Prior knowledge:
Elements: H1 2-29, H2 35-61, H3 67-82, H4 84-107, H5 110-116
Amino acid sequence: MESVRVFFMCFGIGVVLGAGVGILNIIKSLFKHNLIVDNILDCLYSIFCCIVDLFTLVEFNFGVLRLYLIVAFLLGMYIERKTLGKVFAKLLTWLYNKICKVTVTLRKTKIYKKITK
């Protein structure tokens, strides 16, 4: 019974780490696809994921690494990316497009032209 609890714990942590990938992609998009920044952020996030996984194994499974726990982490991340991650990405794309439209509209107003002169 303990193994099932640890499996679902690892699965849930995998879902949270998968959501972190979405947040990381948003942060990386702010840097205009700078390859160096992308690689550094990916390395830092990978190290963070390893530390979280290691802490989880030590805390909930006495440091014993089993194949089904790795599968639980990866399955949680995969399912999050294929379900909630897509909804989250669509929502952020919609929000970004709305902000761009408002910005373009504001730039055409007389008040904006007076302020920027």
